[in-house]
Amino acid sequence: MENSAAFPELLAGFRAGDSASINALCERYAPFLRAAVRRQLHPGLRTRFDSLDFVQDVWASFLAIPAERYTFDTPEALLAFLNRMAHNRVVEVFRQRFGTQKDDITRERAVNSEDGSDQIRAPVPTASQLVIADEEWDRLRGRFPEGHRVVLELLRDGHSYEDIARLSGVSLSTVNRIVRRLKDFTDS
């Protein structure tokens, strides 16, 4: 680890707020903290969290504690304290990600499947999807005579066949025929 004789000086510099002492402390103990985090980190969390994030959380918490609140006689005592902080932080995240329904990691799905079946879909169409749909609609409408386009518009608006027949002034059999013709175009 380090020379035990230099440890009190390093700690005194740290307490005084000396940036060189703080940096030296962090550099010396960061590898041990990272190893402690990696030992504790659940395999399901390793792909979602970097162990360095936990190390930085531990340092931020440690630096926020007033220096008068703790004393460390040996480097090992400081390391034990930092390891305990790392352990507590890892446990806290584990409980959050496995113990709450909101952040439950077991409810997540992979989005990188080969066939794209797990691809996440947006709740609303994208702008390009809307443009493509409008172009397709215009192409489809162009295949029908003007009188039939009224039926298509009412169908697109979600009206029932009976309502379409009544609103457009045609018979129900005409509406059925136009719908069959529409299905023939969309199937080809």
- Approximate shape: rod-shaped
Write down the domain tally.
Answer: 2
CATH topology of the largest domain: Rna Polymerase Sigma Factor, Chain: A
So, CATH architecture of the largest domain? Orthogonal Bundle
Secondary structural class: mainly alpha
- Mean pLDDT, as a whole number? 82
**Number of helix segments?**
9
Backbone CA Rg:
33 Å
N-to-C series of helices and strands: HHHHHHHHH
The CATH homologous superfamily of the largest domain is named: RNA polymerase sigma factor, region 2, helix turn helix motif
Proportion in β-strands: under 5%
Q: Low-confidence segments, ≥5 residues, pLDDT <50?
A: none
**Largest sheet: number of strands, sense, barrel closure:** none
By CATH reckoning, the class of the largest domain would read Mainly Alpha
Number of strands: 0
Helix content: 55-70%
The rounded distance between the terminal residues' Cα atoms is: 75 Å
For the structure shown, list the relevant keywords:
188 residues, mainly alpha, Rna Polymerase Sigma Factor, Chain: A, Arc Repressor Mutant, subunit A, 9 helices, 66% helix, 0% strand, sigma factor, RNA_pol_sigma-70-like
